[in-house]
């Protein structure tokens, strides 16, 4: 039976039997309903529109045009246009809110940790009795430093524990840097002789280098630029080290002072055997002991620990035997063996003189007489 659309006499010879043979099977599932037509990217002009000025038969659709057939222009946009405008409005509102929040509530920048300059006090100790002389080994064995360790072995590390904001590893790094500074500034033979400073300088925070360099070039007892506040060195025209085996004893301690700063405090006594030396001449004569007590305070922030450097913020130094009249800011001048007690006070200070007064002027202590170390007590049988 022929379909309603077929010719009365059926299809002509040689032609397939209907649309099923003309169209592939995959097009059978396509339904050209109203939604399909509205979703097309191209829209055909109506017959009335094609009679006008338009030369093209179709036009492209955009999200700003309505989805239905062509209609006379009105003040109401189509659904797609409304959705597009809502999307743009939401993006604009979000962007404006982000800008407003950024301007009204800026993120608080991390506080810049300021590097403090070193403040130092160096006090000479005058002898209360004649300065003992002899061979270095005998002097060490008979003096209070008989039980001290030699060199860096006398700078012992405390038990390490983490703090609230610093790990065990960071605490160990801070203590190790403080110990390195003590070794380089108190035990290096070239530093003690006054011929080198670089081994100490490389351990300092860059912000302290200018102060350090000025202290080395033009030492002053103003509390900021004493070379002996940074390191131990002897006046080459007065004395030289007679035994490189310096006796050392003391303690290290650490404390977290803020979430970003770890502080290390050191308190050590260094005992040197020295001999008198004339300028340009080797040391000669009997040796004597020279004692230096150094209390140093170091600070480390995270940047210091990562760069393996330190900030030396304070130094309190007692050194003798020396004459009270000598200025210890540039270098120490030990009194030779046999020198008796002195009654000469510190150098006179003129409060009316121009310039900055020496802060350590008038500071002079008395060195207690060296007494032999008490022998160890044997347990009772």
Question: Can you describe what's shown?
Answer:
The protein is of the alpha+beta class. The chain folds into two domains: 18-103, no CATH class; 119-345 and 360-367, no CATH class. It has helices spanning 19-22, 34-38, 47-50, 79-104, 136-142, 168-186, 189-192, 198-201, 209-217, 227-230, 302-307, and strands at residues 42-44, 58-60, 119-127, 149-150, 239-258, 261-276, 288-300, 311-320, 365-367. It has a seven-stranded mixed β-sheet with strand order 4-5-6-7-8-3-9. A two-stranded antiparallel ribbon has the order 1-2. Strand 5 (239-258) and strand 6 form a beta hairpin. The longest helix is centred in the N-terminal third of the chain and has 26 residues, at 79-104. The mean pLDDT is 81.
């Amino acid at each position: 039976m022929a379909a309603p659309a077929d010719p009365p006499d059926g299809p002509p010879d040689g032609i397939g039997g209907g649309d099923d043979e003309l169209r592939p099977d995959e097009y059978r599932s396509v339904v050209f309903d109203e939604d399909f037509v509205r979703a097309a990217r191209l829209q055909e002009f109506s017959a009335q529109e094609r009679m006008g000025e338009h030369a093209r038969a179709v036009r492209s659709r955009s999200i700003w045009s309505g989805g239905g057939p062509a209609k006379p222009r009105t003040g109401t946009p189509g659904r797609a246009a409304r959705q597009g405008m809502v999307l743009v409005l939401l993006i604009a509102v979000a962007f404006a809110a982000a800008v407003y929040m950024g301007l009204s509530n800026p993120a608080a920048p991390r506080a810049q940790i300021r590097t403090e300059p070193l403040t130092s006090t160096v006090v000479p100790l005058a002898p209360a009795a004649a300065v003992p002389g002899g061979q270095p080994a005998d002097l060490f064995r008979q003096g209070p430093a008989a039980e001290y360790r030699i060199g860096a072995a006398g700078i012992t590390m405390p038990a390490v524990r983490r703090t609230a904001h610093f790990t065990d590893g960071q605490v160990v790094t801070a203590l190790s840097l403080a110990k390195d500074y003590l070794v380089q500034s108190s035990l290096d033979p070239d530093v003690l002789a006054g011929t080198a400073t670089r081994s100490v300088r490389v351990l300092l925070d860059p912000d302290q280098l200018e102060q350090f360099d000025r202290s080395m070039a033009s030492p002053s007892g103003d509390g900021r630029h004493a070379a002996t506040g940074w390191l131990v060195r002897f006046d080459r025209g007065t004395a030289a080290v007679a035994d490189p085996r310096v006796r050392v004893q003391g303690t290290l301690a650490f404390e977290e002072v803020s979430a970003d700063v770890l502080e290390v405090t050191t308190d050590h006594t260094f005992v040197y055997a020295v001999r008198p030396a004339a300028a340009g001449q080797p040391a000669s004569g009997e040796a004597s002991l020279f004692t230096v007590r150094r209390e140093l305070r170091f600070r480390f922030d995270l940047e210091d620990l990562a760069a393996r450097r330190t900030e030396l913020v304070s130094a309190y130094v007692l050194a003798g035997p020396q004459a009270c009249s000598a200025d210890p800011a540039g270098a120490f001048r030990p009194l030779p063996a046999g020198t008796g007690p002195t009654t000469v006070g510190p150098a006179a200070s003129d409060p009316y003189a121009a310039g900055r007064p020496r802060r350590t002027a008038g500071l002079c202590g008395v060195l207690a007489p060296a007494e032999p170390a008490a022998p160890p007590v044997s347990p009772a049988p």
